[in-house]
Amino acid sequence: MNQLLNVTIAGINAVQTIVPSDLAKGILGTVANILMVVQSVIKNKSDFRAIVNKCKTIGEILERVTKDTTNDNLPRYLVHALLMLNSSVNNINNKVVSRKEQGLLKRFFSATIDRDQIASWEKDIGSALELFNTESIAGIAMKVERLTLGLDGNTTSANVLKYHSIEPPSRPSMFYGRDDLVAELTTLVANGEHIALIGPGGMGKSSLAKAILHEPLIIKKFADRRFFAAYDDLDPSTITFETFMTHFAGALGIEITGADPLRPISTFLHSTSALVVLDNAETFEEASTSSALEKIPPAIAKIADIRGVVLILTSRSRRNATDVLWRTMDIPPLDLSSAERVFFQTYPRARCSDAEEEIKDLLRELDFHPLSINLLTHTARHNDWSLATLLKRWNDRHSAVLNPGKGKLQSLPDTMQLSLDSPSIQGLGEDGRRTLAMIAFLPQGLNDNLAGDLLPSLQEVDTICDVLRRQSLVYHQDNFIKVLAPIRHYVQDSLPLPDSTRLREIRTFYYRTVQQCSKEQDGHANVIISDHFNIERVIAFDLTHIPEETYRACSKFLLCLRWHLPRPTTLTPTILDVVENSSTYELKADCLWNLGYLYSTLSQLTDAMKISKAAEALYLATGNHEMVAQCVTSCADRYRCQGRFIQSQQLLEGFQRSESWEYLDSQFTAPADELFVKSSDSKDHFYGLQSKIRHWQAKLYYGGDIVQVNEHLENLLLQCTCTRVCFARREALMGLSEVAFCEGRLSKAMDILQQIMEMSEGERSDNVLWYTVLKAIVASKQGDHVLVRELIYQAPESSQFFELRSAFVSLHRSYGAAWIELTAGAYDKAESHFIAAIEGCDIQGHLSFKAYSKRGLGEIAFVCGDFALAARYFTETRPLCTEMGVPERYLYSCDLFSVLPDRFCGWTLFLEGQSPFANIM
């Protein structure tokens, strides 16, 4: 056996010296190493006879197949076969060497390997040889077929002139954020599915297709049979079937003539598996000539039916060949992270900027559109713009900045114009462009369900939108027909404004809906909720062009938002900037009044007061003194909500000395105490009840007889019988719950709060959450900590808009959570919630909860024995009390549910200067 090994090793070494291929030399060296390990270490050498013979065969085969070749002109099919053989041989060598090392580590001079293991290695080598032979035979067959067709050498025929190898385009160097999509598409292609990549111009469809061509799984399956046929340099109006086929053949590396160009292409593709990309397919899908429309789709279908052929099609159009089973994939924009990588990679100067949020906002304005990001950053880099200059240029010029060169890859206008010039769009006439302009004008796009109501004169609106979508100029999302931001900017910059007829129709529908809208959650309210940004856009446009006709719609729309969808509005600067005249003072004031209440609903009280003061000035100019009084009292109430009682009082006292005071009736001017007493005689029973209820609440807060307060509030509650006094009923119940809480009747307090919540259901979710927090505080006093946490941390399902609607309620919940964790002894959690409440107070300008939270932090420090820290927090609480106008000892006088239990006595000891604060102070 040793002699056989010696001879075989020597023979393989001899072949290794003469074969021209470095790859073949490496394989032979590995095979020789396997045999030398067997010779030097393995004890049962005779069991390796079959492996030795197969290794000898490998040497003979490699000598034969590499004859008459050089290292530079090795056929591709042979390179592929050798690579696979090399991988297999290396794997076997690693296993043999591993067993050798195991034997040495055990301090044996030789090792015995069981026959099953040897048989397994023999099988592996046999499989490697079989795979090598299969690859080689396939390659030789393909070469023979090419020779038969005249694809090699200078052979020609009637239909085939010559063949030359075509390399697919390189993988894009800047290609981010598509990893999951590439992996999904690669799997589909490897499984033989035809893919249609659909999307607007500049979305990265071609880059995606090029990336797929270079995926390892694709290279392994298709080897050098990966082709890329580009049609972006052709004109849809002139392309013919013959032009299409010539381009297709050129991408394969063949040139054809004759009457049937499909035959040689089919013959070429039949030889083995192939992947073909048809890039910018909209060029031939939108062809104008009859021959192209009739012949190209069937030709594509026949090619797609060839066994082993897979097609990838990239297109802006959805008019893909109908007889092909396409897996259609709409290409999305980049995500934020990937868009940022593209931005910084192309424009590295921006990395040094601290304007992170401004960059994110810019990318959002571009809808994360890859081409727009690329063009914008290249323009900035080539012009050496700073980031500030780039942002200014974008704000000033929008799509004009995205035009640094010519051609669809260098200019957004050029790539957009290609779509607009397509025969399908041209066939729509002016209605197509007008509809696109209107969709671009509306920030949400066109509500598909309301399209007929919004544009009644446009009978074919659905058909037009279908065509626009097929061309990827618009897309469908959440029942709206939308455009991407770059397309919107281009359309707004290059096409005329929406024509007056279409704009009038949309205005009529939206304004009628606004005027008919009420507090009820009906169909009109649903339109407000669904189309609110569009309505806002139309109103903003009209305010700058026809303000006199728009004020009433604007004022009512703001009221509708407050009822159904409280949110910040972009109308604020537009309303403020309108130059009013004497005839529009009151109309503008009404807009400002409702705008102020909207901001108040959002707990943006500082902004609400500024807006109310602007409304007050206009009402004063028109002599509407009652509305002046309403503006003043609303501002005073907002100061009170912030805990700024001194400012509230000063504002009211100042108003008493104003000119408007003299014009008001006794309903407004009566002293507070007298007002509370006489209000029962008021013609408006609602105001009488509410005033009395607040009077007795005030008695409770300032230490009045609690039994007497309870009796009067119960009597007043009985008078709240009609729907119109719902708010007064809620106020009375709230007062009774406070009485029950102070008296320790916790079950009663809980029942009353539940009554209030049931009244609030179906109205505003923030009201429900407010009273839920109070219920949690009561439950905490009852010791039911499981219920407490369930109440405080689980917001109602209906409060999805809660954070937007009322930040003050969020502040209330933060403090409530801190109160609960403090009383439960979870001081770390309590501290975290108190800090969050203080941060919220700083943002919103609230003093009361800030003072409560500072005191709470002091109590935590006091309980933990850190008296110096406790003194610091208590010291910070004192000036807040002064600023509010609240005596330090009565910090919670108007907020009875916020009072901490008596066992937290640090604040009291601090105020009295008792130990341990005597020395610290």
From TrEMBL:
- Domain of life, source organism: Eukaryota
Tell me the ranges covered by the Novel STAND NTPase domain, including all copies. Answer: 173-317
Q: Name one Pfam family in it.
A: nSTAND1
Give one GO biological process term: cell surface receptor signaling pathway
- Please list the coiled coil stretches: none
Q: What is this protein called?
A: Novel STAND NTPase 1 domain-containing protein
* Species this protein is from: Suillus plorans
